[in-house]
Design a protein that fits this description.
Structural class: mainly alpha
Order of helices and strands: HH
Number of helices: 2
Number of strands: 0
Length: 71
């Protein structure tokens, strides 16, 4: 389950990053960022945090199953 969640989050992260980049490239110079760009960039950041949490959870779970200790 955790692996599928990470795969989904990575896919979403790439899609959000590309969408934010495209909106940034087509934006008119001298104007503030459009609302869509702000929303996509914020979603990209939030998804990155979820991705970090999911990978840490998966790592912790794998270490627990393996019986490894930190340090």
């Amino acid at each position: 389950r955790c692996g599928r969640a990470i795969l989904l989050l990575v896919s979403l992260q790439i899609a959000l990053g590309v969408a934010a980049l495209v909106l940034n490239l087509v934006a008119e110079p001298g104007e503030g960022p459009p609302d869509a760009e702000v929303i996509l960039t914020t979603a990209h950041q939030a998804n990155g945090a979820l991705l970090l949490a999911a990978t840490l959870l998966a790592t912790g779970w794998a270490m627990r199953l393996r019986g490894a200790t930190i340090g």
